[in-house]
Design brief:
alpha/beta; four-stranded mixed sheet; 6 helices; globular
């Protein structure tokens, strides 16, 4: 694959809207590409009604993300607070070592309890 084609693929993947769907009584939000400040600004208005909605479990799936910075942390903390405020559960799916490292460094691993697969996220509830 040529570098230009690879860059175009990465750019398009980052601009892809999240996939949102219901599964086993949960709402799953599948994020793609880079989760940075620009993504935060696009995603927060989408996640707010989901995390304050009627679903007892909201799953944020990070398995298709390629970059995750402090804006992503803010997005997850915001989602966690909103679900917890209404006695719902937020599950985070993540198997990327660098993203998991960011969660560990920030001390959020015990709070968010990331799991490597969607199946585990659904079973944890």
């Amino acid at each position: 694959m040529q570098l230009d084609a690879l860059n175009e693929f990465a750019f398009n993947d980052s601009d892809r809207p999240p996939r949102v769907y219901g599964l086993d009584g949960a709402v799953v939000v599948e994020l793609h590409g880079e989760i940075d400040l620009l993504a935060y600004q696009r995603l927060a208005p989408l996640l707010d009604p989901i995390t304050s909605g009627p679903a007892s479990t909201v799953v944020i799936d990070l398995t298709r993300t390629t970059f995750f910075d402090c804006s992503g942390i803010s997005l997850l903390v915001r989602a966690h607070r909103r679900t917890k405020a209404r006695d719902a559960r937020l599950a985070v799916v993540c198997n990327h070592s660098l993203t998991l490292r960011v969660l560990r460094i920030t001390g959020l691993t015990p709070t968010l309890l990331p799991v490597p697969t969607l199946g585990e996220a659904l079973q944890a509830g």
